[in-house]
Every structure is written in structure tokens, then in C-alpha cells.
Amino acid sequence: MSDARAPGEDWVLRTNKLSKQFGDRCDLCRSVDPSVLERNFCPKCGTVYALRSVSFDLYRGEVLGIVGESGSGKSTILNCLYYDLEPTSGEVFVRDFEEGQTNIFSVSGQRRRHIRNHVLGKVYQNPVHGLRMRFSSLANIAEKLIAAGNRTVGDMEDRARNLLEHVNIPTFRMKEAPANFSGGMQQRVQIAKALSNNPPVLLLDEVTTGLDLSVQAKVLDLIKQIRRDFEISMLLVSHDLAVVRMLADRTIVMLNGTIVERGLTDQIMEDPQHAYTQELVYSLL
Amino acid sequence: MNAVLEVRDVTKEFTIHQFDKTITGCRNISLTIEHGAFVGITGRSGSGKSTILKLIYRSYVPQNGTIMYDSRDLGLLNLASCNERVMLQLRKLEIGYVSQFLNVVPRTTAREIVEQAVLEIGQDHATAQSRAREMLAHFELDESLWDSYPNTFSGGEKLRLNIARAMVKHPRLLLLDEPTASLDVHSKTRVRELIERLKTEGTTMLGIFHDIEFMGGLCDREYNMQAGFLS
Questions:
Q1: Is B201 helix (H, G, I), strand (E, B) or coil?
Q2: pLDDT at residue A3 in the model
Q3: Cβ distance B109 to B144 under 8 Å?
Q4: CATH of domain B35-62+83-230
Q5: How far, in Å, CA of B63 to CA of A273, rounded?
Q6: How many angstroms separate the CA of residue B92 from the nearest CA in chain A?
Q7: Which of B93, B90, B88, B98 is nearest to B68 (CA)?
Q8: Has the ipTM of the complex gone over 0.90?
Q9: Residue A241 and residue A281 in contact, taking contact as beta carbons nearer than 8 Å
């Protein structure tokens, strides 16, 4: 079993030189020297380099934080991993898909759907993207279960009920549409949906942004609890350093589409090396 | 040689880019801690005592030097450069750190904090519950506090909880960053008793103490830190 791998070898998701550009590129920015770029775009043709050769490993059972300012490429990573965006180049391997031997971008639509439905779960910043707002909460979860090949209505309803209970949605509201729910409740339904197929990897995109503090605490409690109960690996994108400090074992710092620093979370917070990380950490209240 | 930890020529400097300035944390530090030993570091505030502990715990990354640690499960490792994942496992299973501040996730009760520490080292729930009870009782934390959140605790109560959390795991190496600084004499005595007990059980410890006299007789060796140098 992969659990027997030595620490440092037990990755579940490996990202290798992931790059994403928006634009056609020109002779100037095609030259390999990245110093021609102004922040993350080409001053001549305007091509945006959202991700530039990003590589990292996510290990079994860990929470990896990704921090950085708006536009630094944090969400683009998750969008590429969940097939919401096609990367320009680069490879991603997932241990639970063909033993981690196959680049997930090299496979057909059908196998992509398999990965999306069985291996990954994603929670969007805006629940509108992760939920069908006019369908019931139960139906939302059933949709994901059906996509993964379930056909027994009774089983699916039981599973959905269990999950919604787990995320503290009261039983009498389970048949209600998330459109009626508060932001925090919608986020918890989204988490329940993402968890429904027991994915080994969960992608969390600014899940607590815009929620008030007590609701935010509930969502964070839930994430902690999930981590304890299911041993899921999580990629946690957030510009809130306090959230990352609380949840992440290791942290990656992004700036202009590249990783400028990585390390143990407390090391990033207490001994930041890069000028940008220092600016970020010293701004922490 | 039977050293658990061997620090060789470690230097730490902090570069603050904004002010284009470099601050020295410590310079050419070397020290060895044998298995089961209790080593104390004294020195004035700002002399770099905590820097050494944080380097060993990898909260800081040194500029040069090696920090060789003899792991129970993973053999000899350089903590200055080993894989982060390995370091996380060591923190979970072998190396404990008691800081001057209690760092916990909000809305976790004192009891849960100590129980979770026991669960982390792979014990079952029943063991976690009984060990947590024993530890909280030992530190005379009022039972009415066990199921409340530490943000309402006094400084001394927080500190005792912090120590309880680290000691309950019986780590192979325990780093103590002024664990008695803000405690009254009575609580200090409890900490001392527990240190004595851990010592007889074979725990290796490196501690920073303002009031080293209080630990008198317990330390196998004492170092004094001055302006980043160890003597």
C-alpha cells in the first residue's frame, strides 16, 4: 500500500512545470528570459502568464496552503487541476489514477470525467459555481454520486443525509434548495458534495473568504474535522494567512505566476526569506 | 557515540529586505546532547537562545552548519536540510516544542488539545482520554476548565496546558523555550517534577531558562549565550 511509503515519498498529487498563458505570445515574450515580463504579462503583446512552470507535491493526509496576492495564480492552479482550465504546458500525476504514472492532461474526456468524479473534489469560493442553486441539497449530492456511477436511490439518499448531517445542515432543510441558505450553509453543502465520493484529494479555493468570523470558524472546524476523520489531502488556496497558519502543514507562496517560496507553514510565517513573503507576513495583524 | 542531537557550526542571519538589513540570530553554534541528558541554556533576552531551539525545530532555516538528529525510526538526519515531510513526521512523533505562547486552533477545549496530541502519536481514544486526564490533573488545571476554550485562561493556565500538550506525548527530544517564565513557584515546582519524571524515563531535553537556579541539580550541562555565541 502507498501508506507504507517513506515520508517524502508518499505524494498523492504531483505537479510538474505547470504553465498557463492567456494570449498569443510574441517574439519578445517567447524568449526564455522571464525578466522581459512586466509583473506577469508581456509589455509588447499583453499575453498574461498566469502560471509559469509551477511544480509541487501534495502528500497523503496533508494540507498544503497556497498564499499570494490576487492575480498571483493561486486559483489558476486549482482550475487547471480540476479541468476547469486547460494548462498551456506541464504535467500532473495523481497517485490514485493509474498508480500516478499517467499525466492527467494526456487522457481523453471520459477518463478526465473519471478523475474529476472519483479522485478530486473541489470547493469553489462562490457556491454558485459548485452547486445547482435551485435543486435540493440532497439532489446536489446525488448528482455527484450519479456521475460517479451510483444508481441506487436509497443508498444515495442515505449517503447524502449522512454527509449533510456531518456538515451540520439540519435534517428538515435537506430537501431545500441551497438558494435559500446563508453563505456559510451553502459553503458547507458544497463541502459535503465535494466529499461525497471520498476523493483522496480536495481542492479548496478561498472557502472562507467573505464569510463572517463565526461562520468562518464553523467552516474551518469542519475542514479540521474532515482531515482528522478521512485522511484526505487538501490544497488550500487562501489570501488569509491566519486561515493558512491554522490549517496548513506546509505552504507555498505565489507571486506573478511563480512560486517564490515554500516551506513549513510556521517557517514561512516566522522566517520568511523572500522580500514578497516578508511583506505579506509583516502585514499580518 | 550516543548523541541524540549534534549541532555543528550553525549560523543564522535574518535578512530584512525592506530595510536592506541583516540581523544576526546566532553564530557558529555547536553543541551535543547525549541520550537522556538535560541541557540548559541561559542568557540575556535577545542573545539568541530561542533562535537555537527554532533552528532545531525548523521554524528557522540556518545559513550554514548541520543539525544531526538521531531519529528513533528514521536513523540519522540533518534537520537543517531534511525533507519537510520528514520534519513534520518528527514533530508529530519524536520532537516536542514548548513555546512561551500557547498556539492552538480556536474553539478547541483544553481536554481536546491534550487528547489530540496523544491521538497524533497513534494511540487509541481510550488511552488519549486517560492520559489527557492524568496530565491535566497533574498540572492542577481546575477541572472546570477542562471543557472550556483556552482563550479565557490566565497566562499560567495557558502555559501549563502548553506543557501538558507537549509532555503527554513522551517525545524523544523535548525543546523547552522558557517553560517556567510566567509561572508562580508552585506551578514551577510541578513543571520541575514532570521534567524529573521525563528524565528518569529517558527523555532528552534542551531547555532555555531565565531562572536556571530553579532547575539546579537537574541540568547535566549548562551553556551561556551571549550576543549570538555560546559558551
A1: coil
A2: 43
A3: no
A4: 3.40.50.300
A5: 11
A6: 11
A7: B90
A8: no
A9: yes
Segment-wise mean pLDDT, segments of 10 residues, chain B, 231 residues: 88 92 90 92 84 94 94 93 92 91 81 92 92 91 91 84 90 90 81 86 89 75 79 73
Whether residue A8 is predicted with pLDDT greater than 80 in this model: the reply is no
Q: Which three cell numbers stand for residue A131?
A: 452547486
Q: What pLDDT does A2 receive? A: 37
Name the pairing type of β-strands A11-22 and A89-94: antiparallel
Three-state DSSP state, B141? coil
d(CA A283, CA A277): 10
Which sequence spans correspond to the domains of chain B? Answer: 35-62+83-230
Inter-CA distances, B82 with A4, A142, B6, Å: 19, 44, 15
Distance CA B223, CA A215 (A): 49
Whether B151 has its CB under 8 Å from any CB of chain A: the answer is no
Alpha helical stretches, state H, B84-218: 84-93, 110-120, 125-138, 155-167, 185-200
Nearest beta carbon to residue A266 from set B59, B74, B106: B59
Over the Cα atoms of chain B, what is R_g? Answer: 18
> Region A77-104: what's the mean pLDDT?
95
Domain topology for A2-126+202-282: Rossmann fold (3.40.50)
Closest partner residue to B88 (CB to CB) among A249, A270, A279 is A249
Chain A residues closer than 8 Å to B87 by CB? 264
Element (H, E) at B51: helix B49-56
CA nearest to A138, candidates A155, A123, A153, A160:
A160
Binned at pLDDT 50, 70 and 90, residue A64 comes out as: very high
